[in-house]
Amino acid sequence: MRPAGPRSGLFRGTVQSIRDVLSHRELLGLLVRREIKARYKDSILGFFWSLARPLALLAVYWLAIGKFLGAERSIPEFAIYIFTGLTAWQLFADIVLTGTGSVVANSGLIKKVYVPREVFPLSVVGSSLFNFGIQLGILVLFTAIRGQFPTGERWLYFLLGFTVLVTFATALALILSAVNVYLRDVQYLVEIVLMLAFWMSPIVYSWSQITSQVESTVVQNIYASNPMTQVIFAFQRAFWVAGDGQPMPDYLGVRLLITLGFSIVLLWIGQRVFARLQSNFAQEL
What we know:
Blueprint: H1 10-23, H2 25-39, H3 49-68, H4 78-100, H5 102-105, H6 107-112, H7 119-145, H8 154-182, H9 186-199, H10 207-213, H11 217-224, H12 227-239, H13 252-277, H14 281-284
Helix pairs in contact: 1-13, 2-7, 3-4, 4-7, 4-8, 4-9, 4-12, 8-12, 8-13, 12-13
């Protein structure tokens, strides 16, 4: 018999949970491949569909906001700018939204055998990273075609922003996937919150447009404290070469390091919350 509840001790329990996941790494790999294949099962175009939605959004926002509303007049290389934000946001939304329903979606397996339940939201992270890699490749290729290929320290901003994004999104996925087992309304609430959060992030508008409309430095700092806002700024600093000289929040690197520390703590808390709630998953499902 294997205990399904949390291991005793805040740190010892976390270490034991990590060992459990590592001991089931082959299963985790199988789940990741299953997630990827399930998305494109019986699909003729296959992986193309992982690009269809962001490219469609790019076309709509570029035409409606860039052309019709004139945003591209104040944002150079608007297509690169918006696709950079969409690439980061799509990874975050995929991990959080799909991760929220990951435990419920695997209820049949959970009720039959014991496996570390963390592998289900983690498998979503793996499959989302696969799709992200495809979109990132398109973005990098696009910058090269436009003669705006990022070099040098720009990649440090990307690595830091990417680490913050994955850590923060994984922490949310762990917490929300556990709570969603007991309260199924959570997955619908997450959809609404993500929709609102999209428009609260600097994806289709720039920092200069924010500061011109909001004069309060307190409100500006609160806005810039949003982890995904910082991540998107980091991606823009990396890939939006034409934006050199455009205003961005001060001390972006320092802000990202602080947020990374916060995200790591949140990930640990998320794992402990998940471990505390997972003992009754089979009964609830």
